Predict the structure of SIS domain protein.
Amino acid sequence: MAEDFYDFTSAKINSLSNTEKQIFNFVVRNMHLVKNMSIRDLAAACFVSTTTLFRFVKKLGFSGYSEFTAMIRLTERTSKNITIPNVISKKDYQEDYLKNVIEAVKVISNDKIDLFNRIMDRYPVVYILGLGLSADVAQYLRRILTVLGYHAETPVEDYEINSVLKRIKREDVLMVLSYSGNNRKLARYIEQIVTVATPTIISITRADNNIIQNMSDLNFYMFADDISIDGIDITSRCGMIAVIETLMYKRITELK
């Protein structure tokens, strides 16, 4: 049996049906729960039959449900949070770092890319929210979008958000960058914006179930090992950048 769920399944994702892709997304975001679920429990959580779920497991290449959950447990256990420099070796971190970036790109389905392109075909005004390290990524995304001919803004301060509240329209896009997906300040900003307009919300967050992902119309997920020094978050945003660049380069291809 392969040692990593993502490596084992990545080549098979695009062959899944829409229903199976929804099951896959649920599994990836809720590995900590799925690892202990029976096939009936998971089927109920995904609103499908056990027959559909068993067919999904076989389509991913597993011999059965037990092998499926065994690999999830192994993957979930080996991707626990880490702190440097005392816990892991430099060699291990380099390998995990590269794998996280690669997996962030591998799990982007063609359906999600097509939906993203349909949204961006409208050439909406794009408001990008990001705090902490994600704020720097937001600036990078704004520059790319500007080069592609979009009007893009990166409000950060409360007064800038207040300005957005007066101008944002239903046909606009709100892009939210948050590694944890549980940033309360960002969630509050989204709630304020949704009360005055209902823009399309596109987010990039970590893979597990989170507040911002649940508030989004379209969510892309990244992988990273949580890293902090003296309580300050320095978790890599390279997975987030990889997702952005994949979407943007695909967008450039569409425009040619």
Q: What stands out?
A: The radius of gyration is 19 Å. The chain has 13 helices and seven strands. The longest strand covers residues 200-206. Residues 81-90 have pLDDT under 50 and may be disordered.
